[in-house]
Design brief:
47% helix, TIM Barrel, alpha/beta, single chain, 6-stranded parallel beta sheet, 7% strand, 6 strands, 361 residues, 2 domains
């Protein structure tokens, strides 16, 4: 019995090599070097990530170990709890992919909003930016969803259908970007134009045209000579204007100064007024959409967002949007490098979210 169960586990791991590699690399970045080397050595010895194309496991994991050793002692190391959280997310997605394949969608007039932040290519081993999806992976994720029959909607279109009570197709999804990294213009915009996918770009307006990194950027190498500026520099006003040309990209607010406004509704209100003013003066935008900085929301904060004249308030709660949901508390699905079209489809269909909610009980 044990042997049979072991074979099943091995086959599951072997059948999804790319996803496993990227998930482990993402998770191992968050461990200290000692724990990471133990996990990498065991996984490499077992051969659990052997690729279909014949590439050697040793080469793959030597790359991971090189990356880990280069970051040893730096503040980029994360505790074991975060790495285990990444593995739990992967397990939920794998279960969701299987359930979707067997039973189809479990949604009923619900749709999903995808959230991206940073989009830049790997530079070399050791450069693994936080909250990053590579352009190649980004293209594969979105083009894969389109091939699977999903429809990309603009956030404004979804809000209008919600306001008027019109139904939103179960295969609709929305793409959003938080913070306002310059690599959106360099890498995401050409892909979105190629695929014809609309997106909303939420800007922390105080940092437009700033040459240094965002003060809230949690990547240790941001702003240093070890990382190219394209991986961390904020957008310029000119890049934002170029992105809006053609009507595919909408610009919204991500607050002005991107602070943690929990239990500070009055401060959020004043900050939003500044952000709205910048968007009006620089881009002639009125009634902008909004996403909460750090995803932190609440009843009091949502009220301030509404009173400041913004169209919605998006959080980072990993949940789908249903017809009765208040648009000032809509959740979003955080997309990671490890995600594939199949795993995103499982999340958009509600299976992965169901698994994560069940584990919290």
């Amino acid at each position: 019995m044990v042997t049979r169960a072991g074979k099943v586990v091995y086959l599951v791991w072997r059948n999804y090599p790319t996803c496993i590699d990227r998930t482990f690399q993402s998770g191992l970045c968050r461990l200290n070097c000692e724990w990471a080397c133990i996990f990498a050595s065991i996984a490499g010895w077992l051969g659990l990530t052997a690729g279909r194309n014949g590439s050697s496991t040793g080469t793959k994991w030597s790359r991971v170990l090189t990356m880990l050793s280069s970051q040893s002692g730096k503040k980029t190391a994360r505790p074991l709890k975060k790495a285990l959280g990444d593995m739990k997310r992967w397990l939920a997605c794998r279960w969701g992919v299987t359930m979707r394949h067997l039973l189809g969608s479990r949604r009923n007039h619900a749709f999903g909003i995808l959230m991206y932040r940073r989009l830049c290519p790997w530079v070399k081993p050791g450069f693994f930016p936080t909250w990053n999806v590579t352009p190649e992976r980004f293209h594969r994720q979105l083009s894969g969803l389109l091939r699977m029959g999903y429809q990309a909607w603009s956030l404004r279109k979804a809000l209008e259908h919600h306001r008027t009570g019109q139904s939103i197709p179960r295969n609709a999804f929305v793409v959003t970007f938080d913070d306002g990294y310059g690599n959106f213009h360099d890498y995401a915009l050409p892909i979105l134009k190629e695929l014809g996918i609309p997106a909303t770009l939420f800007l922390a307006t105080a940092f437009l045209d700033v040459k240094g990194p965002f003060p809230f950027d949690d990547w240790a190498l941001a702003g240093t000579s070890q990382a190219p500026p394209e991986c961390w520099r904020p957008l310029t006003i000119e890049q934002c204007r170029e992105s809006r040309c053609g009507g595919l990209i909408e610009i919204g607010s991500h607050s002005h100064t991107h602070q943690r406004f929990l239990n500070r509704p009055e401060d959020l209100h004043q900050d939003l007024l500044q952000s709205v003013q910048v968007l009006r003066d620089r881009f002639a935008i009125s009634n902008p959409t909004f996403s909460f900085p750090f995803g932190i929301s609440g009843v009091g904060l949502a009220r301030e967002v509404r009173e400041a004249g913004l169209a919605c308030g998006l959080t980072t709660k990993g949940e789908l949007v249903r017809p009765g949901h208040e648009p000032y508390s809509w959740g979003r699905i955080t997309v990671e490098e490890a995600d594939t079209p199949a795993s995103l489809a499982a999340q958009l269909d509600g299976w992965c979210i169901l698994a994560r909610k069940s584990w919290r009980r």
